[in-house]
Specification:
It is built from three helices and five strands, in the order βββββααα. The strands form two sheets. Strands 4-3-5 form a three-stranded antiparallel beta sheet. The N and C termini lie far apart (about 40 Å). By secondary structure, it is α+β, with helices and mostly antiparallel strands. The radius of gyration is 13 Å and the shape is globular. The chain has a single domain, classed as Hypothetical Cytosolic Protein, Chain: A, CATH 3.30.1230.10. α1 runs antiparallel to α3.
């Protein structure tokens, strides 16, 4: 029987390799908009974050997502991420 391969991704803040389903993807679309990609399939440049409050706050403080995506990430994206953590 064939063993199914588990996709691994690296968090841009902690540099820790995790399973793809444990991370959340933030994507810069070809138009230059920044969005949260819950399905992990949107077209564009993506960056992954561990979905913990500490990691999201650290990403906002040191602008890790800005560097990874090459654009300035709006504060509303960080607010939405923090809201998702609380749910």
């Amino acid at each position: 029987m064939k063993v199914k391969k588990i996709p691994m991704r690296t968090c841009v803040v902690t540099k820790e390799k995790c399973e793809k389903r444990e991370l959340i993807r933030i994507v810069r679309t070809p138009e230059g908009n920044v969005e949260i990609d819950l399905q992990g399939k949107k077209n564009g440049k993506g960056a992954y974050l561990k979905l913990t409050k500490e990691v999201v706050l650290k990403a906002q403080k040191n602008k890790a997502l800005d560097r990874a995506l090459g654009v300035e990430v709006p504060a509303s994206i960080y607010e939405e991420l923090l809201k998702r953590i609380e749910e």
